[in-house]
Amino acid sequence: MSSSISFSEQVNRNFDKAAAFTNLDRTLLSQIRGCNSIYRMSFPIKRDDKSIEVIHAWRCEHSQHKLPTKGGIRYSKSVNEDEVIALASLMTYKCAIVEVPFGGAKGGIKIDRHEYSDRELESITRRYTFELAKKNFIGPGVDVPAPDFGTGAREMAWIADTYQAISGGNIDSLGCVTGKPVSQGGIRGRTEATGRGVYFGIREACSIQEDMDKLGLSTGVEGKRVVIQGFGNVGFYAARFLEEAGALIIAIAEWDGAIFNPKGLPVQAVHEHRVEAGSILGYPGAEVLATNMAALELDCDILIPAALENVITDDNVANIKAKIIAEAANGPIAARASDELTKRGVLILPDAYLNAGGVTVSYFEWVKNLSHVRFGRMQKRFEEGAYRRIVSAIENVTQRQFPEEEREALSRGASEEDLVNSGLEETMVLAYHQIWEIRKRLGKGADLRTAAFVDAIEKVAVCYQELGIFP
Ligand code: NAD
Predict the structure, then answer these.
(1) Residue 364 lies in a domain
(2) Residues 217 and 153 in one domain
(3) Cβ contact 8:89 at 8 Å
C-alpha cells in the first residue's frame, strides 16, 4: 500500500500537529518525540531440516520518562527498524493517555510465524529473550514486552521461562513480560483486553449525542453496521463484544479474503468455521468479496481495521464510506488519508487511545506479579460476608425476603476477572472523556487524534519539567 512517508514519520507528523497546540519548550518537545534507545540484533538458528538461518530482530525503548518501558513483540515479515520505532513511540503516547505508568517500547522479529515449526518458534523466542537480557533490554523494572501481531500467550510463557532461568532467583522475574497464560503468572481478562477496550471506546463514542447527530447516526452501539479487518486476537474480541451489545457485524476481512452478509455474521460461528476450515472463506450464507481490501470500502457505520498499519492510504481513501473508523490496529490510516477523512467529517477513534486496553490490563498483570497475590483473593469472602449482612438487614427492615437468585447476585464479591474488567472500563471511559474535552478546548480543526497526542505530550512533559531539567 503506497504512502509517501514512513510509519515513524507519520507518527511524528501527528506529534508535530499536536505539539503546535502546546506552549512547550522546543527542546523538551524534541526529547519527548525522539527515540531514546534501539537494539538491532541478528542471531543464527538451526532449522528442523538442519539448515542454518540468520534471524533479524529489534527492540526499541522510545522513552524512559517512566520505568519500566512497555510494548508488544511482533512476528511479521514486514517488521523493520522504522516500524519498531514508530510503534514504540505510539506506546509512549498510549500509556500516557490511559495513565499507565510506563515508558513506550516495541520489539519485532522479521519472520512469518507460519513458516516455522513450534520448535523453531520456541528456539527463536528464547534466543531473542536471551539477547534482550544480555543488553539489559528486558526485566520487571527495565522493559516489559507483551503480545502483538503474530505472538500470544505461548510466546510470552517462553519469554518468562527463559528470563527466569537466567535471572538468578529474582523474585519478581515473572513481571518481565505480560500476556502470559494464567498458570504462568498471567491475569484473567488479558487475552480479550484489547478487543474489550476497543468495544468500550466505541461505546463511549457512540453515546455522545452531539457527535452522533453530526454523523446522522442514532446514539448507542445497537443496530450499528460494523466491518472488521483482521479476525485475530483484537478483531475477534472487538467483534464479539460489539455483537453482544447489539451491533451487526456485516463483513469480516482476513489476509486470504473477505466475507459479507448485510444481515450480520455470527462472530463465534465464523471463528469456529475458521478454526475447522483454516479460513473464514466458505462460511455458509456469506458472500465472498472480490478482494480482502474491498471490505474496507463497504457502506457501513463503523469500520474497524484490526490487522496492520497503512491499510487506508491515498490509494483507497476516496472510496471509504464508513462514518466512524475505530483504529484497533496501530497506524492503520496514513497521515494524509486521516486528514482527508477528518475533513469529510468521519469520526476517527485514534489507535493511541482505542487499543490501549491491552497495555492497561498488562499493567494490572505486572502489578499482580510484583505483589505476588491474585486480585480479589484477600477481600472477596470478606466483601461477600458484609454484603450478606446488609441484605439480611434490609430484609429485616422491609420484612421482605429476596429471592435466592437475587440474594446471591447482591452478595457476590468481586473476582479477579471482575476487577480487571472494571478497571479496564474505568480507564477507557475516563480517557475518552479526557481527550473529548481536550478536542473541545483546542477548538476548530482539532480531531480526536490531535487531542489524544496533546494529552500525551502534556502528561510526558510534566515528568521532565518536575525534574527541573526543562522549563
Ligand atoms: P493477531 O496476529 O492475533 O491478528 C491479526 C489478524 O490479522 C490475523 O488473523 C491475520 O491473519 C490477519 N491479517 C493479516 N494480514 C491481513 C490482511 N492483509 N487483511 C486482513 N487481515 C489480515 O494480531 P493482534 O494481536 O490481533 O494485532 C492486530 C493489531 O492490533 C496490530 O496492529 C497490533 O499492533 C494491534 N494491537 C494489538 C494488541 C494486543 O493486545 N494483541 C494491543 C494493541 C494493539
Answers:
(1) no
(2) no
(3) yes
Q: Whose CA is nearest to atom 31 of ligand 1?
A: 329
Last residue of a domain, one of 395, 412, 429: 412
Banded model confidence at residue 1, pLDDT cuts 50, 70, 90: very low
Q: CA-CA distance, 93 to 350, in Å (whole number)?
A: 11
Q: Which three cell numbers stand for residue 146?
A: 507483551
Q: In a 3-state reduction of DSSP, which class is residue 6?
A: coil
* CATH number where 156 lies: 3.40.50.10860
Shortest-distance atom of ligand 1 to CA 355: 43
pLDDT at 109: 98
Q: Are residues 96 and 178 in the same domain?
A: yes
Q: Which domain holds residue 404?
A: 381-412
CATH code where residue 211 lies: 3.40.50.720
Catalytic residues: 106
Distance 365 CA to ligand 1 centre (A): 21
Average pLDDT, the chain: 96
Nearest ligand 1 atom, CA 193 = 40
Last residue of a domain, one of 397, 412, 427: 412
DSSP 367-384: HHHHHTS-TTTTTHHHHH
217 occurs within a structural domain: yes
pLDDT in tens, 157-181: 999 999 999 998 899 999 999 999 9
**DSSP letter assigned to residue 169:** T
Residue nearest to atom 16 of ligand 1 (CA): 255
Both 159 and 113 in one domain: the answer is yes
Q: Is 218 domain-assigned?
A: yes
Band of residue 468 on the pLDDT scale cut at 50, 70, 90: confident
Both 338 and 399 in one domain: the answer is no
Residues 195 and 240: beta-carbon distance below 8 Å: yes
The answer to whether residues 127 and 57 touch, using CB atoms and an 8 Å cutoff, is: no
Answer yes or no: pTM beyond 0.90: yes
Measured from CB, residues less than 6 Å from any atom of ligand 1 are: 147-150, 194, 229-235, 253-255, 292, 306-308, 328-330, 355, 358
User: What are the C-alpha distances in Å from 79 to residues 33, 106, 309?
Assistant: 21, 11, 11
Residues 213, 289, single domain; the answer is yes
pLDDT grade for 4, boundaries at 50, 70 and 90: confident
Spatial contact of 453 and 97, defined as CB atoms under 8 Å apart:
no
State how far the Cα of 210 lies from the Cα of 283, in Å rounded to an integer: 38
Nearest residue to 198 (alpha-carbon basis) of 299, 300, 324: 324
Residue 216 and residue 307 in one domain: yes
Residues 6+ apart with CB under 8 A from 292: 229, 253, 254, 255, 256, 257, 258
Whole-number Å distance between alpha carbons of 339 and 87 = 20
Q: Structurally, how many domains does the chain consist of?
A: 3
- Considering the domain boundaries, does residue 275 fall inside one? yes
